[in-house]
Amino acid sequence: MREPRGDKHELPINGHPERQSVSVVIPALNEEHNIPWVLERMPPIVDEVVLVDGHSSDRTIEVARAVRPDVVVVPQHFRGKGDAVRVALRAATCDLIVMIDADGSMDPAEIHRFVTPLMNGYDFVKGSRLLTGGGSTDLTALRKLGNQMLVRMTNTMFLVRFTDLCYGFLSFRRECLSALALTAHGFEIETELVVHALKANLRIAEVPSTELPRRCGTSNLHAFRDGKRVLRTLIRERFVRRPRPVVDPIDQRVLHQWRPAVVDVRDEAPREALSEGSLR
Ligand SMILES: Nc1nc2c(ncn2[C@@H]2O[C@H](COP(=O)(O)OP(=O)(O)OP(=O)(O)O)[C@@H](O)[C@H]2O)c(=O)[nH]1
Ligand SMILES: [Mg+2]
Predict the structure, then answer these.
(1) Taking ligand 2, which is a single-atom ion, which protein residues have CB atoms under 5 Å away?
(2) What is the pLDDT of residues 49-107, one digit of tens each?
(3) What's the longest Cα–Cα distance across the chain?
(4) Ligand 1 mutation pick, 24, 26, 29, max ligand atoms within 8 A of CB
(5) Dist. CA 43 → ligand 2 center (Å)
(6) Fold annotation for 22-242
(7) Where are the domains of the chain?
(8) Cβ atoms within 10 Å of 259's Cβ, excluding its own
(9) Both ends of the chain: CA-CA distance in Å?
(10) Measured in angstroms, how far is the CA atom of residue 219 from the centroid of ligand 2?
């Protein structure tokens, strides 16, 4: 890990970093039973909570608004955690952004660990379940093995020394968002965030974090399918230099919700006349 930059993020003379505002972004898909626990545990340093709803069929949005009336709810245009995260990050307005899951597997009480390094010279902070002080009561043997393999590959391919990879509790300075150039649609978003942070030469820190089992409901992650997507992302990022274009397949339900294209009435008359004429 690189040392924090000494220039633009220097501490003020009195040694205390200036107050920076904090947005927390939460992708949520059918998490009505878990979201209250997450929102109730938000520490006071959090100024804004952005929840991106993945077309939930339960009462995730209503429950979230009841617990935290100031929550900013944003719909996503497609499906997948990656798409949700990209939408959420565009909607966040504070200086620092923390990303956390809605299923109760990450404890908002740890948010200060992700904010403090950003206030002290780092640009990007990733949670690690494998650093001393971290842990997981959620990782199955299969996921642990897969994650370990992917961490080793990342370290070898990008000459770094990460201890964890497939973990979505992380934070960064909002001014770095465009440099992160995110395009991922699925769970590989976490890998893309980390690898693009490396490529953008951001100052990266790992902090210990404890992952808990999701409180309720079922996982949206499929170890093999999503593991393959992470692997493909790593290989592509290592060997392809050119930036990947963003191509979002828009969900048809969203198309129905969007404002329709404006019809110019001046164009409409001749077309009606034409169709009437052609019917005769
Ligand atoms: N908006 C949105 N959120 C999603 C989508 N897929 C997953 N999520 C959310 O992303 C977070 C992580 O998804 P999980 O299903 O918990 O995946 P996981 O944490 O890797 O798997 P578990 O450890 O088994 O819980 C949760 O908050 C989900 O609600 C999606 O398509 N859209
Ligand atoms: Mg989870």
Answers:
(1) 103, 105, 214
(2) 999 999 999 999 999 999 999 999 999 988 899 999 999 999 999 999 999 999 999 99
(3) 85
(4) 29
(5) 20
(6) Spore Coat Polysaccharide Biosynthesis Protein SpsA; Chain A (3.90.550)
(7) 22-242
(8) 5
(9) 77
(10) 6
